[in-house]
C-alpha cells in the first residue's frame, strides 16, 4: 500500500523542524549564560557613582543615600530575622526614567567585597525592613520613584566595597562605590 505524498513530506519535515528548534534553544542558552558570566572571574569597576550620586541602568536611576552594616537583626520586636553574619542595610531610591512600568527586583541587586566576593539580598529581611512599601518590591510607574532598604547578609569579617544595582538580572548594572 502506498502512502499519500503529503504524509511523506510531513514525516521528512518533522526532523528538520525539531532540529532547528533544538539549535535555537541551545543558541539562546549559550548566549544568555555567556552574556551573564562573561566576566565572572574578575570584577573590575572602572567608574560609578557613590553615595547620594545617581547611577543609571536601563530604565532605572538608582541613588544610595546610606549604608549601615554590622546589624544583627532585621525587623521589630514582634517579627525578626537574624543574620548569619551581619546585615548591611542599603537605603535606596529607585526612579523609573523609562516610559512604561518596570519591575524592581531586589534579588537582582548584588554587593561585593574587595576580593570580588558576591552577596545577594535577603528577601525575608527586606520584607521586614520595608513594611508598607510594596511599591519598592514591585512595579514602579514611569516617572515615579520608590524608596526602601535593600538588606544583604554579609559574613563576619567581610567589608562591602561596592554595589552593583540592576534593572534586571541580565542588565549590565550600575556600580555604586562605597569607599
Summarize the topology.
Layout: H1 5-37, E1 55-57, E2 60-75, E3 80-96, E4 102-103, E5 110-113, E6 118-120, H2 123-129, E7 139-140, E8 145-154, E9 160-165, E10 174-177
Antiparallel strand pairs: 1-2, 2-3, 3-8, 4-7, 5-6, 5-9, 9-10
Summary?
This protein has about 180 residues and is α+β, with helices and mostly antiparallel strands. The protein contains two helices and ten strands. Helix content is about 20%, strand content about 35%.
The dominant shape is extended
Query: Would you tell me the overall average pLDDT?
Result: 81
Strands across the major sheet, in which order?
Answer: 1-2-3-8
Strand % is 35-45%
- N- and C-termini, Cα separation: 81 Å
Give a quick account of the main beta sheet: strands, pairing sense, barrel closure. 4 strands, antiparallel
The CATH architecture category of the largest domain equals Sandwich
Count of individual helical segments:
2
Order of helices and strands: HEEEEEEHEEEE
**Which CATH class of the largest domain is shown?**
Mainly Beta
Give an overview of the whole structure.
The chain is of the alpha+beta class and 179 residues long. A hairpin with a 4-residue loop joins β5 and β6. The strands form 3 sheets. Strands 1-2-3-8 form a 4-stranded antiparallel β-sheet, covered by helices on one side. The chain is 22% helix and 37% strand. InterPro entries: DUF4352, Immunoprotect_excell_Ig-like. This is DUF4352 domain-containing protein. Keywords: Signal.
Amino acid at each position: 500500500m502506498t502512502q499519500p505524498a503529503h504524509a511523506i513530506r510531513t514525516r521528512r519535515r518533522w526532523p528538520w523542524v525539531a532540529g532547528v528548534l533544538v539549535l535555537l534553544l541551545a543558541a539562546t542558552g549559550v548566549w544568555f549564560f555567556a552574556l551573564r558570566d562573561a566576566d565572572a572571574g574578575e570584577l573590575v569597576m572602572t567608574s560609578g557613582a557613590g553615595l547620594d550620586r545617581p547611577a543609571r541602568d536601563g530604565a532605572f536611576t538608582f541613588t544610595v543615600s546610606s549604608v549601615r552594616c554590622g546589624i544583627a537583626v532585621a525587623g521589630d520586636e514582634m517579627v525578626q530575622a537574624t543574620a548569619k553574619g551581619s546585615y548591611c542595610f542599603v537605603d535606596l531610591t529607585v526612579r523609573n526614567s523609562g516610559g512604561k512600568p518596570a519591575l524592581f527586583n531586589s534579588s537582582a541587586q548584588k554587593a561585593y567585597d574587595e576580593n570580588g566576593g558576591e552577596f545577594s539580598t535577603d528577601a525575608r529581611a527586606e520584607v521586614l525592613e520595608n513594611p508598607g512599601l510594596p511599591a519598592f518590591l514591585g512595579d514602579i510607574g514611569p516617572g515615579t520613584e520608590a524608596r526602601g532598604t535593600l538588606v544583604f547578609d554579609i559574613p563576619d569579617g567581610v567589608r562591602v566595597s561596592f554595589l552593583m544595582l540592576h534593572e534586571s538580572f541580565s542588565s549590565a548594572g550600575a556600580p555604586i562605590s562605597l569607599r
